[in-house]
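Backbones bend. We report:
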Amino acid sequence: MSNTRDQRLAATFVSLADTLVADFDVLDFLGMLTERAVELLEVDAAGVILADQRGGWRPAAGSSENSGLVEVFAAQTQQGPCLDCVRTGELVLSMDLAADVERWPQFAPFATSAGFRAACAVPMRLRDDIIGALTLLRAAAGPVDRDSIALGQALADVATIGILQQRAVSRQEILSEQLQATLYRRTVIEQAKGVLAERGDIDMHAAYTLLRDYARGSRRRLSDVARDLANGDLDAAQLLASDVSRGD
């Protein structure tokens, strides 16, 4: 591992541990987790699903807002390594999704058609409470590197502790209220992405990047900016033309 990667990894753990701040945004936090997982773990994509208050599982973040990847992670809430992982609380691996059609008859063909051949899902858990899972995807078939799996689990562990520690309430309240609110805000972000994509004639990933960069540049929470945009309180043209959102 290079010194640069060591430094990046150390910075990532510091960022994931630093959740006790007034403007903590769990969606931006999970987005950072998936993006850093791709950068550090030699995988091609990463995503997180979280528990909702009805006992189901929903996608909460991905390393890209590419429509194909978003659909893959949405499909995982019905079948696949991520769902098996949250049900068992254990690591779930697939070295070749094309050979796992019997295991996951709906998910495996869907994932391979999106360009992914190997998968690894690690639980986001604290003792007996499983709040979700982090899935790592690779375009090439073959085993996911053991060091990458170990680091992925470590990242998931720190992220889980950070989310649970961020609220000074009981664990059950966090699971049923905080995480449910997170999933609701994710729906608002999807609506805002659609507004930007249509107004700017751009793809969904570019729309998400503009939305996130605008929120960071204006020192506002991602979910608050998305809500204002979806409600019409923030003009999409203003955001599209903004130097902050374009990184100029």
Remarks:
- The chain has two domains: 3-166, 185-246.
- The chain is about 55% helix and 15% strand.
- Confidence is low (pLDDT under 50) at residues 243-248.
